[in-house]
Amino acid sequence: MRNGIFITFEGLDGSGKTTQIRRLTTWLAHRGIEPTVLRQPGGTPAGDRIRGLLLDSRGSAIAPMAEMALMFADRAQAIAEVIQPALDAGKIVICDRFTDSTEAYQGGGRQLGSQLVLDLHRLVCGGLMPDLTLLLLPGFEASLARARHRNLCAEAESGIDEGRFEAEQDIFYRRVWEKYREIARREPERVVTIEGNLAIDEVHEQIVEAVAERLLTAARTA
């Protein structure tokens, strides 16, 4: 019986998700809460291998349908190995990306459409949905520029290339951007959109407000 809280972060790379996840984790720790934190793709040994295949720009081309299938293979493993056990134990799970990313990047960016993604989600993930999704949407150009610069710096420092998606043309990312907006309009009760080129502290304040409200709701219904 699930009794934990599932929180996801979404947005383009370069939108500040990593920083805000770290700050939220610290905020929760100060309140005696130790969440389970993971990223997708990745988060399990099998998922990390899939991540390398999906994100390495030096690898061979991956067909859009194969790319989407790999995303769901990673997700199924993460649910079975990490997410569902943590939720069953009553923990807060914070995940950097989930099926919304697949709908935005493969459904929107690769133009595979939303319905195929949602059908696969029901089949592969048992319909597991986040309780709260925090969608970070700073300015499009600034976000994309930060993502490309960050990946270049990371590759120079670590030798790990995760820039396959950042190598896509801007039109690809426009489709991703618009699909994220479509998801937010479709599911306003779940998705909290934090938009604009806000300061890190301002974004954190909005995230804390949304999470605190969700924690209060969970406490009232427990």
Fraction of helical residues: 55-70%
Instruction: Look up the CATH topology.
Output: Rossmann fold
Give the termini distance in whole angstroms.
13 Å
Report the principal-axis shape: globular
Just give the CATH class: Alpha Beta
| The CATH H-level homologous superfamily | P-loop containing nucleotide triphosphate hydrolases
The tally of structural domains comes to: 1
- The run of helices and strands is EHEHHEHHEHHEH
Strand portion:
5-15%
Write a structural description.
- It is a single chain.
- This protein is α/β, with parallel strands linked by helices.
- The chain has a single domain (5-221), classed as P-loop containing nucleotide triphosphate hydrolases (Rossmann fold, 3-Layer(aba) Sandwich).
- It is built from eight helices and five strands.
- Strands 2-3-1-4-5 form a five-stranded parallel sheet, with helices on both faces.
- Helix 3 (64-88) crosses helix 5.
- The two termini are 13 Å apart.
- The model has no long low-confidence stretch (mean pLDDT 90).
